[in-house]
Amino acid sequence: QVQLVESGGGLVQAGGSLRLSCAASGRTSSLSAMGWFRQAPGKEREFVAAITKTSGRTYYADAVKGLFTISRDNAKNTVSLQRLSLKPQATAVYYCNAPLPRCSDVACATFVAGNNWGQGTQVTVSS
């Protein structure tokens, strides 16, 4: 079992920046790809970004390419998500998920979520 704990959310003004972190504990040897999902008010949870363990290859949902940056520290078992120039549309609860079983499509524009979720961290962007 893997436990995931997110941090770094909060209230941010539009144009500001944000860095979310997720710390994994437990069976961290099983961690392969790690990623972030988000759920905006009234919408379904959606994939945001993923990063592999060995090569550090990154994948992003088409809607967020160029907006978010995902990174990880394998020694610390953490994964981070950074966004500059925030817009109100980024308001959502952001969830860490690991390990990610696989891509959902050939282009890896989205990933299948695994069974391990963090508790989520609220990000609110004010205009």
Which short descriptors sum up this protein?
127 residues; mainly beta; 6-stranded mixed beta sheet; 4-stranded antiparallel beta sheet; 0% helix
Characterize the structure shown:
It is a single chain. The protein has strands at 2-7, 10-13, 18-26, 34-39, 46-51, 58-60, 68-73, 78-83, 92-97, 102-103, 111-112, 121-126. The protein is mainly β and 127 residues long.
How would you write the strand order of the largest sheet?
A: 2-12-9-4-5-6
**How many strand units?**
12
Name the shape in a single word.
Answer: globular
Indicate the low-confidence ranges by residue numbers: none
Beta content comes to: over 45%
SSE string: EEEEEEEEEEEE
CA(first)-CA(last) distance: 40 Å
Radius of gyration: 14 Å
Give the structure's gist in a few sentences:
By secondary structure, the protein is mainly β. It has no helices and twelve strands.
Topology overview:
Layout: E1 2-7, E2 10-13, E3 18-26, E4 34-39, E5 46-51, E6 58-60, E7 68-73, E8 78-83, E9 92-97, E10 102-103, E11 111-112, E12 121-126
Parallel strand pairs: 2-12
Antiparallel strand pairs: 1-3, 3-8, 4-5, 4-9, 5-6, 7-8, 9-12, 10-11
